[in-house]
Specification:
Number of domains: 4
CATH topology of the largest domain: Alpha-Beta Plaits
Number of helices: 15
Shape: elongated
CATH architecture of the largest domain: 2-Layer Sandwich
Largest sheet: 13 strands, mixed
């Protein structure tokens, strides 16, 4: 026979807004750690039911195991955990935190605990433990409010032993000696972060999060972290990230260790492929000689782990859950555990309440709802599950493998970081540039091998500088040609224009270089990353098209698809060029003819043709 439910609550008045409090209260791992709760051990839990993990910990002096169900929450309003215990003095625990507006400003934070004892005599002990837990949480909520009020969020960090001693000092000095002068200030920030940052923040360093916190360029902070690995201050790992909840499902110390079959997310119950621009993220942490880090976990389900999720609810079998919709228009996504999804369009003419059914699929596949309304989700499944409403335009802070591999520092410092033989990983979109030199065969015959080779070698440095200045990286050189990759087509086109504008001055240094000029092609699209000749390379139809566009170029030309040219013209990437021709070409291996644009840089003495201004 169970005891009566023990209910304890506490209201903490705060001067801070719910918007400011939410990200800190929703970080339940940090909150539980700071409140002095016990660490947890986690193992996956399969089978029917909402719970996805089995957790072991200590509660009130007792060793317990409980089923961890997904948190139920509405962003900036409330979140709730329900834990069903397997054995021990308690049957279940429900913890809830609600944020409500106070009259006159500020927020009332209501902390609630409901405990169902397994035996009646445990009621008094349960109430005592619940009161003690809420007192500790309330103390931490007040501390958060004070820290926000004085603008000192760092005061919220759990205390951590600073990194000191020989290994740390040697690594820090090595980084200072090796870092370019313009990155020294960021290097010092990183050294201090490793020295005294809280264990959770240092155990998994995400360089783009640091960059945003420091108001610094993301690529610069990433480059400093990579140099810190060479210096011995950090070590690099690759996390397999679920494309839905965007949390790390697995971790490997090398790209070669990535599983060819992809990953699995226990929470979302989905398998996913290894897209380098979505599912593989670079993270960092100091090695053990540099700093000892407590790797303990205190909670795995807080809303802060999934900041792109607006609302989440457990959905019992054949039941109904209603997810509130933000009071602004936009596109979102409804996701049901197992991978069923529906597009959500929040627009002014949408109904106040939209309805959907969730089973193996979500029906309808596209939902329209009004701002501030709700989506009623009806389960037609026989299993308990969970459903969530998530943003699709969320700003991701992941330094994906696709981004990292485009950083020149990574190519230079981590040449050994390659994929396992035979593994090809998809990259959703990459911009590629191919270059070649016109009249190079005649150059060797006229000038001789050594002078011709010197010119080609020097041209590589000129082109490499333009590539890196515009955020790209040289993938490889082939004879007198270069293949470069960029994170965007705008960057690739800007680099191409810079090459065309700068090449005439370069080639004038060589009196034997008559007729030598650049021929460039740019294309963007999906491709695959592979290891070829010991380096990360790309292959696929996008690569083939980019190379064949370059083959269509004449001396001093940039050739690119007409559609791409029109898109980058709007962004100003083709400023300083003029179009000499719009034409249709059939490229080898391409089924349909392509509409292409031939452009030249506006430089004194540039060859004419029909001039059509681009900008």
């Amino acid at each position: 026979m169970s005891g009566s439910t023990v209910s304890v609550s506490r209201i903490v008045p705060c001067t801070s807004s719910a918007e400011a409090l939410w990200p800190l209260l929703a970080d339940t791992d940090r909150l539980n750690r700071a409140a002095g709760l016990s660490r947890i051990e986690v193992e996956p839990l399969d089978g029917a039911g909402a719970a996805r993990f089995l957790v072991s910990t200590r509660l009130g002096g007792f060793r317990v195991r409980y089923e961890e169900r997904p948190a139920e929450f509405v962003e900036r309003e409330r979140f709730k955990f329900v834990r069903v215990l397997r054995g021990g003095p308690v049957r279940s625990i429900e913890m809830q935190i609600e944020l409500g507006a106070r009259s006159g400003g500020g927020t009332d934070v209501t902390l609630s605990l409901q405990i169902v004892p397994r035996w009646p005599m445990m009621g008094t002990v349960a109430r005592l433990n619940a009161t003690r837990t809420l007192r500790a949480l309330a103390r931490e909520v007040r501390r958060i409010d004070v820290a926000l009020g004085i603008g000192n969020a760092l005061a919220l960090a759990p205390a951590a032993a600073s990194a000191e001693g020989g290994a740390f000092d040697r690594a820090a000095q090595s980084l200072r000696r090796s870092i370019p002068h313009q990155q020294l200030a960021l290097a010092e920030k990183l050294i201090e972060h490793v020295r005294g940052g809280p264990d959770p923040a240092v155990a998994r360093i995400r360089p783009f999060e640091l960059a945003d916190a420091w108001n610094a360029p993301r690529r610069e902070v990433l480059a400093v972290c990579l140099r810190a690995v060479i210096a011995g201050l950090l070590e690099l790992s690759w996390d397999l990230v679920c494309p839905s909840c965007r949390t790390a499902a697995e971790r490997t110390p090398s790209l070669m260790g990535l599983p060819a079959e992809g990953g699995h997310c226990q929470l979302c119950d989905i398998n996913f492929g290894l897209d380098l621009d979505r599912a593989v993220e670079a993270t960092f942490r100091p090695p053990r000689p540099v700093r000892e880090i407590e790797d303990a976990t205190y909670c795995i389900g807080g809303p802060a782990r999934t900041p792109h999720v607006i609302a989440q609810s457990v959905l019992p079998a054949r039941s109904i859950a209603v997810l509130p919709v933000p009071a602004r228009i936009g596109r979102m996504r409804l996701f049901v555990r197992g991978g069923a999804t529906a597009a959500v369009d929040v627009r002014g003419d949408g109904p106040r309440l939209a309805r959907a059914e969730a089973g193996e699929r979500v029906s309808p596949a596209a939902v329209v709802v009004g701002p501030g309304g709700g989506i009623e989700v009806r389960s037609v499944s026989g299993d308990d599950t969970h459903v969530k409403l998530e943003r699709v335009d969320w700003i991701d802070r992941a330094a994906t493998a696709a981004m990292v591999s485009l950083l020149p520092e990574f190519r230079r410092l981590f040449s050994g970081e390659v994929l396992a033989p035979g593994v090809a990983l998809r990259v959703g979109r990459t911009a590629l540039l191919f270059s070649d030199l016109s009249a190079s065969t005649a150059l060797y015959g006229r000038a001789g091998d050594a002078p011709a080779f010197r010119l080609v070698r020097d041209s590589f440095e000129v082109l490499r500088a333009a590539v890196e200045e515009h955020g790209g990286t040289v993938v490889k050189t082939i004879g007198d040609a270069v293949m470069a990759a960029f994170p965007s087509e705008e960057a690739a086109v800007r680099a191409a224009v810079a090459m065309l504008r700068g090449f005439p001055a370069f080639i004038q240094r060589y009196r034997y270089a008559d007729g030598v000029d650049l021929k460039l092609g740019v294309h963007a699209g999906p491709c695959f990353a592979v290891t070829a000749n010991g380096v990360l390379d790309y292959f696929g139809q996008t690569v083939n098209v980019a190379a064949r566009l370059q083959a269509q170029a004449e001396a001093g030309d940039l050739v690119l698809p007409e559609e791409l040219a029109e898109a980058v013209t709007a962004s100003g990437s083709l400023d300083g060029t003029f179009v000499t021709e719009r034409f249709t070409a059939t490229l080898k291996g391409i089924d349909k003819p392509l509409r292409l644009v031939r452009a030249r840089a506006r430089t004194p003495g540039a060859a004419g043709g029909r001039r059509e201004a681009v900008a």
